[in-house]
Amino acid sequence: MLNRLLLCGSLLLLAACSTVSTPPTSSPADSIRYLPAAFSQLPQWDSSLASESLLALRESCRPLAGRPQWQAVCSEAATLDAANVDGIRRFYESRFVPWQVSDAGKDSGLITGYYEPLLTGSRQRSAQTPYPVYGVPQDLLLLDISAEQRAATQLVARRSGGNRLQVVAGKSQPGADELLVTLADFVIDSRTRTLKGRLDGNRLLPYYSRAEINAGKGINSAPVLAWVEDETELFFLQVQGSGRIQLEDGSFLRVTYAEQNGHPYKSIGRWLIDQQQLTLAEASMQGIKGWLEANPQRRRELFDVNPSYVFFRTLNSSGGGPIGALGVPLTDGHSLAVDPRYIPLGAPVYLATTWPLDGSPKPLTRLMHAQDTGGAIRGAVRGDFFFGFGTEAGMYAGRMKQQGRFWLLLPRGMTPVARP
């Protein structure tokens, strides 16, 4: 969730298999099922394709083309005419098999939205631009751990270069130049691959929370990439995971997710609902901003509900969307953030949902591409729709809380596999 704490993920390795006649596959541990389907079963498939869908696939093919199962697909995709909608449709129908995805017996799930916001700022701090956009602090330490190590009581680690640590196998007590890591100090779940901490004597402790960072802890070693005018917009920049900052001379500075403090993402919208400050229908981005305008004295209290904090890096101000977890630019309206345990990054996903409009729901059916991940994106039928850049994109993204269904498209001869 680049987006909304869009944390970088890895490609889900896929196993070989058979054709549409194969029985559904499942993951008993997670109750994830993939049911092979026909393209005629996809709602509004015949009218859904646009040239942007092919452009998004070509972006996905940059990292996928070297994989044997994707070589022929990507080679043919590079030769297609983006204006030939019928030819593109025939290509997908001949090269891919759709698999309808369900989670715990449910074939629908939550679809939210994100976008690339625009902030106003400066390279210099001033009374008008007092809020810092931080790069990665030098004292933030990263320790990769395996599933087996996640179950341990404590580990011993040592530096392996830069801000990276590595586990010292077979030890439970640290020696000289080694650190003690007590797993109970950290919030760990099945998705935890890296502990993010700070040095305290010879112990690794969790890195500072948002409230602690806002109180001045840890920031002395963090570079400031820019200073911005609006603290609320800075918070939502962190939630989105990337954005553009317009400087005094009219130029734009693009920033994107670089690292995160290791604390779990907590929804301030949910907190406002629980505190009976907003109703569920009101808890959109626009509704939250309205509450903040009416309660400016409670801004920091609300923001500190979410202990997660994102650090950024700058990007070249070239065209295209922000870089997602797949490592390619996102395509407006055709890139989707997913849980890569169940939806492999790079794969097309046919989405059937509705537009976030007042009144009667309007169908939104589209061929998307799984090119991003997010800290809040958990589950097989859970997606975050990238609406693009600017005010209109933000309007849709902030209101998007729809139910939707997924069909995962894989090259013929491949079967989806759920990863623990």
From TrEMBL:
Catalysis: reaction(s): Exolytic cleavage of the (1->4)-beta-glycosidic linkage between N-acetylmuramic acid (MurNAc) and N-acetylglucosamine (GlcNAc) residues in peptidoglycan, from either the reducing or the non-reducing ends of the peptidoglycan chains, with concomitant formation of a 1,6-anhydrobond in the MurNAc residue
InterPro entries per UniProt: 3D_dom, MltA, MltA_B, RlpA-like_sf
EC number: 4.2.2.n1
Superkingdom to which the source organism belongs: Bacteria
A Pfam entry, by short name: 3D
Lytic transglycosylase MltA domain mapped to chain residues: 118-313
Signal peptide interval: 1-21
PANTHER family: MEMBRANE-BOUND LYTIC MUREIN TRANSGLYCOSYLASE A
Protein name: peptidoglycan lytic exotransglycosylase
